[in-house]
Write a structure and sequence with these properties.
Layout (H helix, E strand, L loop, with lengths): L1 E4 L8 E4 L13 H15 L4 H7 L8 H14 L10 H16 L4 H4 L2 H13 L4 H16 L16 H4 L16 H7 L5 H13 L3 H5 L6 E2 L4 E4 L2 E3 L2 E3 L9 E4 L2 H11 L18 H15 L8 H13 L4 H8 L6 H5 L6 H11 L25 H5 L1
Antiparallel strand pairs: 1-2, 3-4, 4-7, 5-6
Helix pairs in contact: 3-4, 3-7, 4-6, 6-7, 10-12, 10-14
Length: 393
Amino acid sequence: MRFWKDIEGQEKRALVRERICPISGPGYMNRSERERRAKEIIAESRVDTAEHFNRTVKQQFGVTFKEQSKIWLQQSQSRKRKPIRATTVPTIQAALDKWILPELGHLPLSETAKYPPMKSLVAKLNAAGLSAQTVNAYFRMAKAVVESAEDAEGNPLYDRKWDAEKLDLPVVETSKQRRPSITADVMAEFAQTKKPKYRMVFILAAASGCRIGEILGLEIKDVLDDFTTIRVVQQAKGTKLTMDLKTINSQRFVDICPEVAALLKEFLGGRTSGLVFLSRRGTPLNPSNLRRRVIHPLLEKKGLPLGGNHIFRRFRLTWLRENSVPGDIERFWFGHANQSVGDDYSMLRKNVKLRKEIADRIGVGFKLPESILAPVVPNVPKMAVKTEEEVLA
């Protein structure tokens, strides 16, 4: 890797190189490991510390919001406490590029710490019809960039409290947030999708409650106990696989009922390695294609609100609660954090026999096809058979 580094007593920075790992053999690292090691080297060199950046921007007036946003994003990834996940960075950068930087990027950072620019940003977001949750999230992002500028002692240069009323920030009402979901009848139709590959994806998503990235990143070696247990250790992000899961609790085991296990076994057809769901190029399936080609058309046909791949996760969680599944087992299967000290004390999640009994007892909550590979027969009503007398009459 190469990066610019300030040299003591020298006006110009030097381009330095650091070895990360061999290109093959002992010590070789995959892409995610190389990226993580590169960030560690940057941190060890102290070129991303507040002291380093503030040496060149002591007055901060000449620094633009755009320049500070780069510093903030870099520090957010390399900090020790709750660093931003690498898979989240493209989403944050996209929000900055599309919504925030066009409004604030050219301004001096000191100006963006005032009400008029921030109020203008909020007005732009509101006018674009973004949800209240999104408007507040983008404002917090802009606020974090401003607050990331520090003096030599680590104190914020622009430490202020923002008045939501003066900024005209919309109120986030949980009851009005969009959370599209589906019924058992609609889920049964997803289970009868024309292509067996898509059919199995939807069935497994609704039967396990796993996130779509976890489903598409699932490898056959992580399907255990005669296809009745899924081990979640990675997810698909675009055409790549990453072990950078959403939360620390996302690494888990998820139990599925024997009926779904039988369909999954049939679908794999004796394959013993590789991804469970493959594209023609051998890469993970594209979740956007699932949404555009199958999910949205079926929901439109039913006259239902459009939703994404998360509708299957919501369906599964609803089914677990309808069947009074213990809360700590529910949170374990879904990769959610404990909510109380009692959850920390409970060892139910380690009772594999009980977990499998519950998964078998409650089933999936929708009608499964008899075969995952058999062609789908259209549900066409049969013509009424008439006698000759009826025809003549």
